[in-house]
Design brief:
Layout lengths: L13 H33 L4 H7 L8 H24 L3 H11 L2 H17 L3 H25 L7 H30 L9 H4 L4 H22 L2 H15 L6 H29 L13 H21 L1
Length: 313
C-alpha cells in the first residue's frame, strides 16, 4: 500500500508541538553533552598546556584546585547523563513539562557554550572566554529560575529533583561562583608569575576576598530561605576547591573555610526551624469539669423546657 504524500498531522496543535519539541531535545541534548565531554577531554589531556595547566600558569587570588574542580565537573556530566535518560524514559506529564518548558534548549546551549569556553581557555583567549562564561551563566540562570517558579521540586517526584533540578543547579554554580570570577581576574591581568607565588600570593587579596564573600553570602541566603541541599553541597564543594589550592591569602582562605562550615550548619538550622514552625500547637487551656452550680443551672433549664413543651402540647 503506497504511503500518502502528506501525513495528516496538525503541527500547530499544542500537544503535537510539545511532542516534537521533546523529540528534538532527546536528540540534541545528548549530542551537545557528548560534544562538551569530548571537548573537555581533548582540552585537558591532549592539548598542551591543558585546562588545569593554564589555570596554574595564571594564578589568581581565587584559583581553585584542579583535582577538586575535575571531580565537580565529572559530577555535572554524570547528572546530565541521568537527565538524558530521563528525557527518553519520562512518562509523567509533570516531568515532561519540566523537561520541555522548564529546561528546554537552555541546557543544549549551555553545553555548546561550555565546549567553546574550553577551546578559548586552551588557546588562552581570555576575553572571549569571559564573554562565553557570562553567556553560560545567563543561560543557566534563566533555566533555573523557570524551573524554580513554574516547575518547583516536589517530594512526590524525587527523580525530577535528582535528575533535572540538581544537575542544573550544580552546573550554574560552577561558572557563576568560580570560573567567571577567575577568568575576569586573568583578563584584567590581576595575576602573577607562578614561579614567584611565594612572594606575590598576597597580591589582590582583597579583590579575591570580595568575590568569595559576595558569592558565599548569596549562596547562604539561598540555602537559608529555600533549604536547598543541592545548592549547599555545590557551594561547599566550590569553597573546598578554593581553600585547598595553595598558596592562598589569609582573607580568601579563611573566608572559604568559614563558609564551608557555616553553610551546612545554616541548612540544618533552617530545616529545624521549618519543622518547628510547621508542628501543630498541642498546647492550650485545660478543660475543667463543670462545678455543682453549673450542673444545677443546666438541670433547671432542662426542666423548664420540658414544662413548656407539656403546656403547648
Amino acid at each position: 500500500m503506497p504511503l500518502p504524500e502528506e501525513i495528516p498531522l496538525d503541527t500547530n496543535h499544542p500537544a503535537v508541538r510539545e511532542y516534537l519539541l521533546l523529540v528534538r531535545l532527546q536528540v540534541l541534548t545528548p549530542l551537545s553533552l557528548l560534544i562538551n565531554i569530548a571537548t573537555f577531554m581533548v582540552a585537558t589531556f591532549i592539548v598542551s598546556p591543558g585546562l588545569s595547566t593554564i589555570s596554574k600558569l595564571h594564578p589568581t587570588p581565587i584559583s581553585p584546585s584542579p583535582t577538586f574542580v575535575g571531580v565537580y565537573v565529572v559530577a555535572i556530566f554524570a547528572g546530565q547523563i541521568g537527565y538524558c535518560l530521563l528525557l527518553v524514559l519520562a512518562s509523567k506529564e509533570e516531568t515532561k513539562q519540566a523537561l520541555v518548558k522548564g529546561v528546554g534548549f537552555s541546557l543544549v546551549i549551555a553545553n555548546w557554550l561550555m565546549a567553546f569556553w574550553a577551546m578559548t581557555w586552551a588557546l588562552k583567549l581570555f576575553l572571549p572566554s569571559t564573554i562565553l562564561l557570562i553567556l553560560l551563566t545567563l543561560a543557566l540562570l534563566y533555566s533555573n529560575i523557570v524551573l524554580l517558579i513554574y516547575h518547583p521540586p516536589r517530594r512526590s517526584r524525587p527523580f525530577d529533583t535528582l535528575l533535572i533540578h540538581a544537575p542544573m543547579r550544580l552546573f550554574l554554580l560552577l561558572p557563576a561562583t568560580l570560573l567567571l570570577p577567575q577568568s575576569i581576574f586573568i583578563m584584567l591581568n590581576k595575576t602573577w608569575d607562578p614561579k614567584d607565588a611565594s612572594r606575590h600570593y598576597m597580591d589582590y587579596q582583597w579583590e579575591g576576598f570580595a568575590v568569595v564573600i559576595v558569592t558565599n553570602v548569596v549562596s547562604l541566603l539561598i540555602i537559608a530561605l529555600r533549604r536547598d541541599i543541592v545548592w549547599c553541597i555545590g557551594a561547599v564543594w566550590i569553597n573546598i576547591c578554593i581553600w585547598t589550592a595553595r598558596p592562598k591569602s589569609t582573607p580568601v582562605q579563611a573566608t572559604a573555610i568559614v563558609f564551608t562550615i557555616l553553610q551546612p550548619v545554616t541548612l540544618v538550622a533552617a530545616a529545624v526551624w521549618q519543622t518547628l514552625r510547621s508542628k501543630p500547637d498541642q498546647g492550650g487551656a485545660i478543660a475543667l469539669p463543670p462545678d455543682d452550680e453549673q450542673n444545677e443551672a443546666q438541670s433547671r433549664r432542662s426542666e423548664h423546657g420540658q414544662h413548656v413543651e407539656r403546656v403547648w402540647s
